[in-house]
TrEMBL record:
Keywords: ATP-binding, Cell membrane, Membrane, Nucleotide-binding, Transmembrane, Transmembrane helix, Transport
The protein's name in its UniProt record: ABC transporter ATP-binding protein
Example GO molecular function: ATPase-coupled lipid transmembrane transporter activity
Pfam families linked: ABC_membrane, ABC_tran
UniProt key word S-adenosyl-L-methionine: no
Organism annotation: Paenibacillus aurantius
Subcellular location: Cell membrane
A single GO cellular-component term on record: plasma membrane
Membrane topology: Multi-pass membrane protein
Superkingdom classification of source: Bacteria
Every ABC transporter domain range: 377-611
Length: 627
């Protein structure tokens, strides 16, 4: 039997036939109530998020509220002034005219002062809150755990800074104050006009439903489009970031045309959405103008009638006409501000998850001089899984004695790098504990825990700055002598001095102006300066040629001297001299011992070693090119 789908866009008359007029009215009222509740919920969630930032700048917002009050009073005074001046001129009241002209000069001066102070107060409030939110967002990025950061594309995160933060003015500044101010303006103007002529004021009130309905509809559509625009900007930023960082691969595989088509497609969709937003905004503005014109012409016609009946003075009519648009513009303005508010909420929707994401600490960590490791590092009953995957470690146990070198080997996906991440606190275990001597790692402050470790990884990360700036990041208070000594021990000092500006030479983004070996040795020099008791090496030589690898190994031997070292090895040739080798397979320790012991024993290590020896004996491929 065919299932009839519910169609929400059923005609009103169809609802009336099925449910009757009373049932249809109940459905419509339920929909309106639901919409109002949803809007109220959005406002509450927004205020919970931004309230701390607004409160810090409460004096600026208080000043802005006072200035808005003065502007409202100024609007009413100007309207009265035009009428009074007109009536005085018609009745040739010269003394009153002189007084009114002097008053007008004072009003102009006051208007200029209020406008200037308003601009200052609004800038102080809006930019102050944006600045605080930007700092809070960056601080949150610094504190977020790696598992949370890895769920976002870098370009998307950059877009949240570059685009979303600068799109939330409707929530933070004048937009928010306008939403609060305009209903007050509407009420004050209506009361004032009602005193002048109640009939015209009540007729003008009929414009309210049309203006509010138009604003609600356009606001909902603009917010929906706003979400898509912000998402597209993030996607385009990610693609741009990938194109720049992977330019070598792009050229090597001739991906230019494919990537251009991809970017052009995103660009077309962005253009379509922005055109749609422009049409919505234009239609709303045109509707607002039409409503204003109808109200003005109606008021003018009624005013002319009352004037002809001598029920109004010319000055009163002029005052009324001057103010009547204030019965429309607060409504159209409120709807327009609501539309802007919706666009800002779309941007805030993307920022909110980062600002509210849980972090392991609230304050930025400070450098703590490392304590010596005297006994051992112990992994006891460790359990861990990545989100959405099967458990990697189950009741894992391992002891690394102080001052010894332990190598961890195994096939890809065995959990080698994850083990280092758990040790350094980059990932958190589901159960179990990591002990540093007699101290629980989970009970230690993350900054103190990480002070035990220096990390040198396969993918060396360097900041876009000078050689000196990258080395000084190891710890505070590094002297020039210590800096140069670390570079010498890393076999790098002479090469640094050969650079155009020595230690003050810019190295480019990610150290792009240095060779692979120089980048790796710079990372080793940084680790030497940190002077931590435990060294974590995540295959620090796997991507280097033979000659460069020899220099790096010399530097690593100096770095490892006197330190507890855990080596993650993807190549068995790098672990022969380790005091102990641990073999992992799918998160389980399947073997342990020295290189000699493991080669003799039947097991995974021997198979990996045999595979490596077989590969080394294979002849190098020779490409033969025709002459």
């Amino acid at each position: 039997m065919a299932v009839r789908r519910y169609e929400p866009a059923v005609r009103f008359s169809d609802h009336e036939k099925i449910l009757g007029l009373e049932g249809t009215f109940i459905i419509l009222m339920s929909a309106v109530t639901s919409r109002i509740q949803r809007i109220g919920g959005e406002l509450r969630r927004t205020m919970v998020l931004v309230r701390p930032y607004l409160w810090r700048h409460r004096m600026a917002y208080a000043a802005l509220a006072v200035l808005y009050g003065l502007e409202l009073a100024q609007t009413l005074v100007y309207a009265w002034y035009y009428g009074a001046l007109t009536d005085a001129a018609i009745h040739t009241q010269m003394d009153r005219l002189k007084s009114l002209l002097l008053l007008g000069a004072g009003l102009l001066a006051a208007s200029a002062a209020i406008a200037y102070l308003h601009a200052l107060a609004e800038t102080a409030a809006t930019t102050g809150v944006k600045r605080d939110m930007e700092k809070a967002l960056y601080k949150r990025l610094l504190l977020l755990p790696g598992s949370e950061l890895s769920g976002h594309r870098s370009g998307d995160l950059v877009s949240r800074f570059a685009n979303d933060l600068h799109s939330i003015g409707g929530v933070l500044g004048g937009g928010l104050m306008e939403i609060l101010r305009l209903p007050v303006v509407y009420a004050a103007v209506f009361v004032y006009l009602y005193q002048l002529n109640g009939t015209i004021a009540l007729v003008s009130l009929c414009a309210a439903p049309a203006a509010l309905a138009a604003g609600a509809a356009s606001g909902w559509l603009l917010r929906r489009n706003g979400r898509e625009v912000q998402r597209l900007l993030g996607t385009m930023s990610s693609l741009l970031n990938e194109t720049i960082r992977g330019h070598g691969v792009v050229r090597a595989y001739a991906l230019e045309r494919m990537l251009y088509r991809k970017y052009a497609g995103f660009n077309r969709e962005l253009y379509r959405l922005e055109r749609q937003n422009a049409k919505l905004s234009g239609a709303f503005q045109a509707g607002g103008f039409a409503v204003s014109s109808v109200v003005f012409m109606t008021s003018l016609g009624l005013g002319a009638y009352f004037l002809s009946r001598q029920m109004m003075t010319v000055g009163s009519l002029l005052t009324f006409l001057n103010l009547v648009n204030h019965l429309v513009y607060p409504l159209t303005g409120l709807a327009g501000q609501w539309a802007s508010f919706q666009r800002s909420l779309a941007a805030l929707d993307r920022i909110a998850p980062l600002l509210s994401a849980p972090v392991p600490a609230t304050g930025l960590p400070e450098y703590i001089p490392p304590a010596p490791l005297k006994k051992a590092i112990r992994f006891e009953g460790l359990c861990f899984r990545y989100e959405g995957q099967t458990r990697l470690f189950e009741d894992f146990r391992l002891t690394v004695p102080a001052g010894r070198t332990v190598a961890v080997v195994g096939p890809s996906g065995a959990g080698k790098t994850t083990l280092l991440q758990l040790l350094a606190g980059f990932q958190q275990p589901e159960a179990g504990e990591i002990w540093l001597d007699d101290r629980r790692g989970s009970s230690m402050d993350l900054a103190e825990r990480r002070s035990y470790f220096s990390l040198v990884s396969q993918e060396t990360f360097l900041f876009d700055g000078t050689v000196r700036e990258n080395l000084l990041g190891a710890r505070p208070g590094v002297t020039e002598a210590e800096l140069r000594e670390a570079a010498r021990n890393a076999c790098l000092h002479e090469e640094i001095m050969a650079l155009p500006d020595g230690y003050d030479t810019p190295i480019g983004e990610l150290g792009a102006k240095l060779s692979g070996g120089q980048r790796q040795r710079l990372a080793i020099a940084r680790a030497l300066l940190r002077n931590a008791p435990v060294l974590l090496l995540d295959e620090a030589t796997s991507a280097l040629d033979t000659e460069t690898e020899r220099d790096v190994k010399t530097a690593l031997e100096r770095l490892m001297k006197g330190r507890t070292t855990i080596v993650i090895a993807h190549r068995l040739s790098t672990v022969r001299d380790a005091d102990r080798i641990v073999v992992l397979d799918k998160g389980r320790m399947v073997q342990e011992g020295t290189h000699e012991e493991l080669v003799k024993a039947e097991g995974l290590y021997r198979r990996l070693h045999h595979r490596k020896e077989t590969k080394d004996k294979e002849p190098m491929p020779v490409d033969v090119y025709p002459a």
